[in-house]
Write a structure and sequence with these properties.
63% helix; 7 helices; 178 residues; mainly alpha
Length: 178
């Protein structure tokens, strides 16, 4: 229990006083290559939710420092990002139950119709920046079949990680791990 005035609930900086310590601990926990593949998994999972975080630089950094982890890093990032997409799908599914009576604009209805026509294959586009993660949520909203959506998400995300990592390695050659 905190006794200090600094940590009482009414203090204006009670929560911000520990922010630098907390942030340093978080950054140290996510540092490469100390945690390696687990870091890639966590960052790729979080970046697949609706939080703005890019996991490609983390994958690239790990592979740049440890070239032998190329395929492991891509597979782990794909798994983390796909599971994050599954969370988006379930959030959309849950939101559908709560907001089913909301009025939709004509453009919104056309987009929903287009996605319903494509079905789970629309989740192949889950790799796209800015629209991919919400697309997974919309797939859940539309109650598209979960397992086919998950498969198409995994295919799209695997392709993105493969192309992005190999592309960055091609543009930035050399090994820095020594």
């Amino acid at each position: 229990m905190f006794c200090s005035k600094q940590f009482r609930l009414g203090a204006p900086h009670a929560y911000t006083a520990l922010m630098p310590t907390w942030l340093d601990a978080l950054l140290n926990a996510l540092a490469l290559p100390q945690f390696g593949l687990s870091t890639v998994f966590v960052v790729s999972f979080i970046s697949a939710t609706l939080l703005p975080l890019g996991s490609e630089p983390v994958v690239f950094g790990l592979v740049k420092l440890n070239p032998e982890l190329l395929w492991s890093a891509i597979v782990v990032a794909t798994c983390g990002n796909t599971l994050g997409g599954a969370v988006d799908w379930w959030m959309g599914y849950g939101a559908h139950k709560m907001l089913d009576k909301t009025h939709h604009s004509a453009a919104h209805l056309r987009a929903l119709d287009w996605l319903e026509k494509l079905g789970p294959k629309a989740c192949l586009l889950s790799w796209l920046p800015a629209v991919g993660d919400p697309l997974c949520a919309v797939a859940g909203w539309l109650k598209l079949p979960f397992w086919p959506c998950l498969l198409y998400m995994a295919i799209g995300k695997f392709g993105r990680y493969l192309l992005m990592t190999v592309g960055m390695l091609w543009f930035f050659p050399g090994h820095y791990g020594s």
